[in-house]
Design brief:
The structure holds three protein chains of three kinds. By secondary structure, chain B is an all-alpha fold. Chain B contains four helices and no strands. Chain B is 89% helix and 0% strand. The radius of gyration of chain B is 66 Å and the shape is rod-shaped. Chain C has one domain. Helices cover 68% and strands 0% of the residues of chain C. Classes of the chains: A mainly alpha, B mainly alpha, C mainly alpha. Chains B and C meet through helix 1, helix 2 and helix 3 of B and helix 2, helix 3, helix 4, helix 5 and helix 7 of C.
């Protein structure tokens, strides 16, 4: 709360920078939620599949990495946005 | 500790080393032309060298070795197959020889059996002859003894009849009576 | 007090490097070194006797080739894609050798944490897979890409827009951003924990406990360095396998 009251005292460029920093933090945090859940779910299911059918483990692993790559891209775009507006 | 600090400065000592002032230069996600050019140039050179020079050479070596290994495998397989054929050949020969031996043994056994049978028949025949001869002899002896008994009995009976009746009985009648008694 | 001692540098200060000579900075050096190392390794490997069991540098090169063939090409494109092995091989080696300097002392900078190289590679891949699509399917490649077989007519405008954006625009973009942002994030993490450690060690403070506390971010730094070894490999692998998937999909749309 103190931080917000401090924010209110800022002016001009300082305020802009502070807003950018906080919104960058929010942006990255929000962007990480979905992919985090997605990757967890994906890897968990893949491990289940590999445990059930160890002979198909190679194929499952390849597909798992592909899925991780696609899911992770969303979080990474969030990270780039964080870099763009925050730093 | 100082070395660690110095080492860390490899990561952190950048601003002074690089001589870049804060806020100078394009944003962090804007590609820089010089980096693009150098990166593109080196990758293209690398990819072309790999495609037309390095990879074919390495792959040719690998293929040659794999072909060699495959040829060795095939040679081993062929050798194994020929050895198997030899074994089969030997077994076939063995079977033939065994059959031949069995046939010979069979033939010999049959010959033997025939001879045995022949000898057995001959022996039986001789035995039968001898038995018949012995039986005939016995019969003859029996008949002789019977005749003697007959004569003796007739004699005795004639004599007894003569003593009893005072007259000499007819010899033929006595002989007939004796015959009847003896036949009973 | 501590917050004043620890001040994160400007982002450009940890990413941009002074020119060693005109227009040749550390990124360019790493890129050129990656190409040279790749060429030298395969040159030495090719010079060795191919008949005997491979060892040393030849073993390394052959293992890499087999990893690309069995782990990437056969899994995604099948036998018909084996002709793409040299391209994917050079892609993989180049990206890996550009990633790995992020954890090598003195260099301490992944070349792929700058936009230039990932962007160039992604655009090259984009050109290659679209070229392959047009070469294999002619103009039907475009319609196949935009309307996958079996789409109802009523949905065609919608699906067309979505597929066009995802196949033609998002693919190179996500390919670039995935590699670039992963390496950049790793680099920033390493810098952060190195800075934390350094500022804790060199802090001018009366509190005795503060300096030994530097061990905590230092452990984190060691762990993250080990993690970056994995990431460097994984990102090269993912970039290569996605390239293979895109090329395979363009060459044979039914897969």
């Amino acid at each position: 709360m103190e931080a917000f009251s401090m924010l209110a005292q800022l002016t001009g460029d300082e305020e802009k920078a502070a807003q950018a920093a906080s919104s960058a933090g929010f942006a990255y945090g929000l962007a990480a939620i979905g992919p985090g859940i997605g990757i967890g779910y994906l890897v968990g299911k893949s491990v289940e599949a590999m445990a059930r059918q160890p002979e198909a483990a190679g194929m499952v692993r390849t597909t798992m990495f592909l899925g991780i790559a696609f899911t992770e891209a969303l979080a990474l775009i969030g990270f780039v946005v964080f870099i763009l507006i925050g730093l | 500790m100082l070395t660690i600090v110095n080492h860390l400065q490899g990561l952190t000592h950048l601003a002074t080393e690089a001589g870049v002032e804060a806020g100078e230069g394009p944003g962090p996600i804007v590609p820089e032309l010089k980096e693009l050019a150098w990166g593109a140039g080196s990758f293209i050179v690398f990819a072309i060298a790999m495609r037309f020079w390095l990879f074919p050479r390495l792959k040719a070596g690998m293929e040659a070795r794999y072909a060699g290994i495959r040829a060795d495998h095939e040679a081993a397989d062929a050798e194994r197959a020929s050895a198997r054929a030899e074994v089969a050949d030997y077994e076939a020969q063995l079977v033939a020889v065994k059959a031949e031996a069995a046939a010979k043994v069979d033939a010999a056994r049959q010959t033997l059996e025939a001879e045995r049978q022949e000898q057995l028949t001959a022996l039986n025949a001789r035995l039968a002859d001898e038995r018949a001869a012995a039986a005939a002899e016995t019969e003859a002896a029996k008949a002789a003894v019977r005749d003697q008994i007959h004569a003796a009995v007739a004699d005795v009976a004639g004599r007894a009849g003569e003593l009893a009746t005072g007259r000499v009985p007819d010899a033929a009648v006595v002989a007939r009576v004796v015959d009847e008694v003896m036949a009973r | 007090m501590l917050a004043e001692a620890f001040k994160f540098p400007e982002i450009n200060a940890i990413l941009r490097w002074q020119d060693i000579f005109t227009s040749f900075n550390k990124i360019a050096l790493i890129a050129v070194a990656a190409a040279v190392i790749g060429i030298v390794v395969f040159l030495l490997a090719g010079n060795k006797d191919a008949k005997v069991a491979p060892k040393g540098v030849r073993n390394l090169a052959e293992t890499t080739v087999e990893f690309i063939e069995d782990g990437i090409v056969m899994q995604t494109m099948g036998k018909s894609g084996l002709g793409w092995t040299p391209f994917l091989l050079s892609l993989f080696i180049f990206i890996y050798l550009c990633n790995v300097p992020g954890i090598i002392p003195i260099l301490q900078m992944p070349a792929t944490a700058r936009m230039a190289i990932p962007m160039f590679l992604a655009l090259l891949v984009w050109v290659v897979y679209n070229g392959v699509g047009f070469k294999h399917q002619g103009i039907t490649y475009l319609t196949h890409t935009i309307w996958p077989p079996g789409v109802p007519v009523a949905l065609k405008p919608l699906v067309g827009v979505i597929e066009f954006i995802s196949n033609i625009i998002v693919r190179p973009f996500s390919l670039t951003v995935r590699l670039f942002a992963n390496m950049l994030a790793g680099h920033i993490l390493l810098v952060t924990f190195a800075l934390l450690t350094q500022s804790l060690i060199t802090a001018e403070t009366q509190q005795l406990l503060l300096k030994p506390m530097a061990i905590l971010p230092f452990f984190m730094l060691v762990f993250l360095t080990a993690f970056e070894v994995l990431v460097a490999f994984l990102q090269a692998y993912i970039f290569t396998i996605l390239t293979a998937v895109y090329i395979g999909g363009a060459a044979h749309p039914e897969h």
